[in-house]
């Protein structure tokens, strides 16, 4: 069954972002491991409840239906067999070696879609990590954040579970952002982020957006696979907001933030993506998951954390798009203040001097890594 197969519910995505951030953020992320262990245990205790209440079965049906809908939109035969990742393993080395996609038996997959969609990589989201220099306050509520950015399209589903109630977290706001295919973030103007003289990038909102979790604790986004930049592997940022409200201008209030963190992809998948255009026009040396200090030191070392998305190709080729999913457990009693150095206002993007109590690594500083 879905949740019982997880040995279960791994931790993860403790946050963080860009080397060069203040040492106190770095050590705070490391110290948060103990809190993660406690939260992981709470989430594991939720497994039976989630199973018995039908959340597992609904998740399988939901993922299968969404993948089929995306195939139809791309004129891909719905009954084509999917490929699937291998069994879950733990700690940094085993997660690096784990294939979250892999292959499956086509006959079994066609006979039972749950064979593909019943597995979850799970992440316990609660300790604060380094938010990074490129969080932008005030982004728009929307599900498609691509804004015509070129790259491999991703349909992402995330389901959020409150570990204190063992129920889906309804009405939370999932705030994501990632760089484009050549390693540049929208919404900021900074050394080491593309053309540092391009002030128009402040008004760019591509690959940033916010969605509210539904009655199943689920959000779905359309984005692109991020590229890479100096010192960091390919990754996606997330800030989770609770007790926030949508405003008339299409943004949200900050509310309470019980988590700041990151997600990753299999290195083998990244290698395939980086071979494609425009990813392969990036001349900066690729940092792998194994080399990335956030993936290893802060996210997976000494833990059972697996912050890597499960995924399937929608078609025969990666260029047909990817459907990916993850289940996240969050301790809603936690509360943090994300730092930011840029904000989207009614007049466009602007730099700020000390957003959220002191946005480290902001507008005029050095490279993000």
pLDDT < 50 runs, ≥5 residues: 1-22, 85-91, 102-117, 357-367
Quick check: average pLDDT?
Answer: 76
Number of distinct beta strands: 13
Gross geometry: globular
Order of helices and strands: HHHHHHEEEEEEEEEHHEEEE
CATH architecture: Sandwich
The percent range for helix content is 10-25%
Give me a quick take on this structure.
This protein has helices spanning 23-31, 33-52, 55-73, 91-97, 106-111, 114-117, 267-274, 293-300, and strands spanning 122-125, 136-137, 153-162, 167-168, 173-177, 208-212, 218-224, 235-242, 256-264, 310-313, 322-330, 340-345, 348-355. With 369 residues, it is α+β, with helices and mostly antiparallel strands.
Structure description:
It is a single chain. The chain is of the alpha+beta class and 369 residues long. It has one domain (21-190, 204-349): Aromatic compound dioxygenase (Protocatechuate 3,4-Dioxygenase, subunit A, Sandwich). The chain is 22% helix and 21% strand. The chain is built from 8 helices and 13 strands. It has helices at residues 23-31, 33-52, 55-73, 91-97, 106-111, 114-117, 267-274, 293-300, and strands at residues 122-125, 136-137, 153-162, 167-168, 173-177, 208-212, 218-224, 235-242, 256-264, 310-313, 322-330, 340-345, 348-355. Strands 1, 3, 4, 7, 10 and 11 form a 6-stranded mixed β-sheet that branches. The chain has a 4-stranded antiparallel β-sheet with strand order 6-5-8-9, with no helix packed on it. The chain has a 3-stranded mixed β-sheet with strand order 2-12-13, with no helix packed on it. A hairpin with an 8-residue loop joins strand 10 (310-313) and strand 11. It is globular. Mean pLDDT is 76; it is low at 1-22, 85-91, 102-117 and 357-367.
